[in-house]
Amino acid sequence: MTDPTPLNVARPDDERAALLVWMHGTLRPEYGERPLTPRREPLHELISTILSQRTTHADEEAAYRELRTLGDWDAIIAAPVEAVAHAIRRSNYPESKAPRIQATLAALRDSPGGYDLDHLRDLPVKDALKFLTDLPGVGIKTASLVLLFNYARPVFPVDTHVHRVTTRVGAIPRMGEQAAHRALLKLLPPDPAFLYELHVNLLRHGQRVCSWHDPKCGVCVLRSRCDAYAQYGDGVPAWKA
Ligand code: SF4
């Protein structure tokens, strides 16, 4: 006999869109309302997001602080790449991030707006994303973070926690992080405040409950509608990206 209740992931787009709205409303009492206010200036956000890849928040901040001791952005571009790598050594993979940061800054310096990113506020979202992802060290996650956090543009950054939770629940099928940006954005309302709060609260949930290894399904508020829990019960397997 076939199961009369399909998994979320097999449901049509409108039902998975409604599932994401339910997740937003269910996570809010757990982690609170998250007003959308920029946490740092745009170029700081951009460079810090590059530094944050596979790095703790404390180490990312320490790396950024020491990077800025090299001088202004022009000075960082002109510095020997080894000096930049040394300055950001608290971030993982400093040898690969240092030339990316210098190349990104140089491309911005030579662009019509220079280091000022405020023109992104008025560009169509598609063009703003293209401007940022055309920069040498900037991917879709970094671009989305800057556009949503700093300019309240309706995009949805997908980090490893957001990707894991939304996939396990079944809001999207299994796919890479890059593709998940497009798949989730297609389902979500174009409301920056909603997108910001959902992003931040999914991140919290991924850090505290739906961890990559040994998720705490027994205390999870999403359990009643989670595909992974429906399939595996308390034995949800470790996440493999
Ligand atoms: S029920 Fe388990 S797998 Fe599903 S979202 Fe919660 S912690 Fe993650």
Automatic annotation (TrEMBL):
Q: Which domain of life is it from?
A: Bacteria
- Keywords noted in UniProt: Endonuclease, Hydrolase, Iron, Iron-sulfur, Metal-binding, Nuclease
Q: Name one GO biological process term.
A: base-excision repair
Chain ranges of the HhH-GPD domain: 51-208
Tell me the classification of the organism that encodes this protein: Bacteria, Thermotogati, Deinococcota, Deinococci, Deinococcales
Which organism does this record belong to? Deinococcus arenae
Give the signal peptide range: none
What would be an example GO MF term here? endonuclease activity
Q: Pfam families from the entry?
A: HhH-GPD
Cofactor(s) listed in the protein's UniProt record:
[4Fe-4S] cluster
Q: What is this protein called?
A: Endonuclease III
